[in-house]
Amino acid sequence: MYCLQWLLPVLLIPKPLNPALWFNHSMFMGFYLLSFLLERKPCTICALVFLAALFLICYSCWGNCFLYHCSDSPLPDSAHDPSIVGT
């Protein structure tokens, strides 16, 4: 279970408010997870616990899933404020 200390913080990294950065964020997180799985080779139990947690977060549409954005979940009000999300 030592390898979970490197996997679980990945679920706590917030998704950016700017929708233009969602693709970059998901690619970074995907490449991080792929490189972690290839380099560190976590145990089966750790990998299954992490994948189950990732599935539950994405399935519940809490808004922190980095794989996709749920169409039902509204953006925070600050996401439409140009002074915060100006590009």
Can you walk through the features of this model?
This protein is an all-alpha fold and 87 residues long. The chain contains 4 helices and no strands.
Give the ordered list of helices and strands: HHHH
Number of strands: 0
The overall pLDDT average reads: 76
- Shape descriptor reads globular
| Portion of residues within helices | 40-55%
* Secondary structural class: mainly alpha
Number of helices: 4
Distance from first to last alpha carbon: 42 Å
**Beta-strand percentage range:** under 5%
Low-confidence stretches: none
**Rg (CA only):** 15 Å
Main sheet attributes: strand count, strand direction, barrel closure: none
Tag the structure with descriptive keywords.
87 residues, 51% helix, globular, transmembrane helix
Walk me through the topology.
Elements: H1 4-7, H2 22-40, H3 44-60, H4 82-85
Keywords: Membrane, Transmembrane, Transmembrane helix
InterPro entries: BCALP
Transmembrane segments: 20-38, 45-69
